Amino acid sequence: MGDIREILIVPHTHHDIGYTHVPDVCMYMHERAIDEIIALCARGTDHAPDSFRWTMEISRPVVEWLRRATPAQAAQLQALVQRGRIALTGAYAHMTQLVGHEEYIRFFAPVRRLRDDYGLPVSVVQHGDINGLSWGVVPLMRDMRLETLVMALNPDHGRAPFEQPSAFWWEGQDGSRVLVWLSLFYSLANNPWRLTAGEIENAIEPLRLLIDRLNQRDDYPFDFAVIHSAEDNMLPNDKICDAVRRWNSSNRQPPMRIATIDQAIQRAHAQAEGAALPTVRGEWADWWAHGHGSTAYEVGLSRLARAEVRAADVAQTLARLSGQKTETLQLYDLPIVNWYRVSNLPLSRHDFQTRVDQVYDLLLLFEEHTWGTFETVTHPHSLFTRTHWEHKAEFAYHAVSEAHNLARESLTDLAAALPAGESLSVVAVNPLSVARDELVTVRTPGVNHTVLVRHVPPLGARVVEWDADAFDAKTEIEPSVMVENDFYRLTVDAVEGSVISLIDKATGREWVDSVQGGLGAVVWEEPAPEEDHPALTQGRHHFHPNHPGPRFTYTRIQADLPHRVYRTHYGTVIEMETYSRLLPRIQTSVILHDSMNAVDFTLTLDKLENYAMEGVYVQFPFALHPAAFWLETANAVYKADDEQLPDSCRDWYSIQHGVGITDGTASVLWATREAPLIQIGGCHTGRWRRTLGEVPGHLNAWLMNNLYFTNFKAAQGGRMQVSFRLTTQDGAVNPAQVRAFGEAFANPPLARVAQVQPGSYQWLTIEPDTVQAQILKPAADSASTGDFILRLKECAGQPTLARITWHGVRPVQFRHTDLLETASGDMLPQDGVPHGVDTFLLAMQPHELVTLRGSGE
Predict the structure, then answer these.
(1) How high is the mean pLDDT of the chain?
(2) Residue 88: DSSP 8-state
(3) What is the rounded CA–CA span in Å between residue 262 and residue 123?
(4) Gyration radius (Cα) of the chain, Å
(5) Nearest in space to 793 (alpha carbons), one of 631, 637, 629
(6) Cα(471)–Cα(115) distance, integer angstroms
(7) Half-sphere exposure of residue 728, counting CA atoms within 13 Å on the CB side?
(8) Residue 258 contacts residue 11 (beta carbons within 8 Å)
(9) What is the pLDDT confidence band of residue 289, given thresholds at 50, 70 and 90?
């Protein structure tokens, strides 16, 4: 039991990039506000309890302010940080769980500039509002010497893993850990307590109850309480100082002191050392993640942008490593600036890094947690709501546009560096470290061609002769309901546009639990007509775990329309069509590949806006029972339920791309490109489960919903396309397979037509395949050094000796660095075996993420 001796008031603003105004205005005002913060913090004495202090809740506005600051202004900020009047934190913004593996590295990148360029200490990551984070953030924080995570969690519409406030150790998959300070909600000091207005009357009774509760708790070993003095996009003011003076002058106990978050956390660490704080492992699955389904099309765009900028980085690095002078390839009569063409101007390499940085900045701004205004649901047609969404959506559209340009230009650079051919060929670049066969899309004037490219080498290029007639050949055959290849025999139900039977021809196993309908069926979710739940009659804020429900009904969409079956150069394609009142057209395409042990589903949906509570699913009821689910999150793969924080979300999950489903004797690997939101074991909206329990192997891709009362869009309409892939196997599934399968489907080879000599071109091989290349890119300082970065992830959870084989013309060497590319570590040893190529050895720990700097000798 504690003995609370002091109340620490931590003033800051909560950074919603939007919500109260359009995003651009909010960002601009947060940057401008730093001048006022400095002026306020320069007043008073450093040790008085009522002297103004401020915490910069996120890093983005600080970095942007420093870009325009004079040396004198920067020095003033440095001095105030040193004096303990201002604290800086390491979170770029408050993120949803959409953020990807490499985006999380960019998320922390400003820490490098704050430390190295300005000598500013950063050790805390502070979040507000959001109520979950990917498990893989723990080792990333430790690698960047960020020791503490503060979560001023908003419990609305979800649950906290422990009583607020609390502290615990969050342990990563690799055994690293950070201290988590699970704070009270950040706005209590303003609403309803009014401390930020200089008043204390409304705070007296709730603070008494809080202190009494903390003194009673056996699990709170601290002698202080932390109260956040913040509000959404609140500009700095010093009225909180008046409240602290009034509280202390009236001799109320315990006394108050204004502190920075660094000062509060230093005290927490000192007292945590002798306390038996709990240690927990697992994903902090976010209850608010269902909001990812409120704008399905733009979420898909952001994931396309992520894939294209990754491919651009790889293609540009390989072009530079080729050692050949690149020339612009001119494939058209006139060099017209065109979305599908490449101009006669070469890629501006000195600007490449800046443009890549901009794409990642745009992705992070789109994936940031502020999705809309405070009135998106109550006033969905207001000018404010519509204007805000135009600004928010622009982050995704701008990101995909620039990523598209970078990818095409980088691939052109690489193609020009390869040996010239006598005729046109398809050049396909593989951004992953595993060889594969894959379908690629190639554009010629006015036509998209789907091409199967076989044996694309890892982190390399495959060039095959161009044969438009063969690639485009499409022969319609008798529309049978049964189709087969060497791997599977499948049966479709054209009425509901789904696969109702999938037989493994090697074992005879049936993979579809057809009692639940077929694979790929579209399901409509709506509240039951007789429901009188308060979320329906009083307001959506009652859609909350304190009010279980409402009960939803689920209808598989059907239509009696003819289906078509085609033969192509890559396999058999089945096309089916269904419709309903609010989904007037659903076209489902199923590909049974000739050469790949996989089945692809692509659905094109036309959606009409609907402001009543709803959901749209694509269901995949696999015949596995009971089943365990392995889910890919940022920098980790975890077992649902077993590897989750207490009371984190189990009704729905936001994943990266891969899922593994197993009963221990047989397994399914499943992947999604555009749609990250899933429900597992059935549909569970409104259940608010605390545990997953024993569930069947049913997976539902939750494409769309509109369940929240603020922030997220009230309705969505238009056309969207989503794609999924699955394969099956005997035995259990492992985390390395889950990540590899998801990554492969999400990151197809980048391809174009160019006059290049056919063949395979390879620079790097990574072994074993449980070690996966997360990124190959030019180093941040490559403009001056020519170096490149190779980031490797051990995905199987086993100690592994990795081998990196270099096939390039120029000799290279590798040395260790850190995620921020600041450290210069040991050189990688070579194995000394005369292969005719250079092979480097790397000892990796389970789940370790290693960053290497490559350079020419």
Answers:
(1) 93
(2) E
(3) 8
(4) 28
(5) 637
(6) 53
(7) 22
(8) yes
(9) very high
